[in-house]
């Protein structure tokens, strides 16, 4: 169970546990959800054009689906280590971040 006093030990244990589930799991925690990519199939790739583009969900293989779901698996594992008070605090911070990002996105559109 997570506690502020033992954060360093908890982090080491969580990194090991998440990596044991999947090699890419910790990267999902650090970098966010994985983008499933495919080769750019444009007939002629011009200078500066990306060599890979993101796959549409209907193109996902079973392995792609597993990788795309890693962020949900990681959240589930982490949430299970939090007591009710800490979960509430993190949930509140998450909503603050979401609304801040929405505000920034929509004010930049004006």
From TrEMBL:
This is DUF4219 domain-containing protein. It comes from Dorcoceras hygrometricum. The lineage of its organism: Eukaryota, Viridiplantae, Streptophyta, Embryophyta, Tracheophyta.
């Amino acid at each position: 169970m997570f506690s502020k006093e033992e954060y360093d030990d908890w982090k080491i244990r969580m990194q090991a546990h998440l990596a044991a589930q999947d090699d890419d799991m910790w990267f999902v925690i650090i970098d966010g959800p994985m983008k499933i990519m495919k080769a750019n199939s444009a007939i002629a790739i011009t200078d500066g054009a990306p060599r890979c583009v993101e796959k549409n969900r209907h193109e996902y293989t079973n392995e792609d689906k597993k990788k795309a779901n890693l962020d949900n698996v990681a959240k589930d594992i982490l949430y299970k280590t939090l007591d009710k008070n800490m979960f509430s605090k993190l949930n509140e911070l998450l909503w603050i971040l979401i609304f801040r990002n929405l505000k920034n996105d929509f004010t930049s559109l004006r």
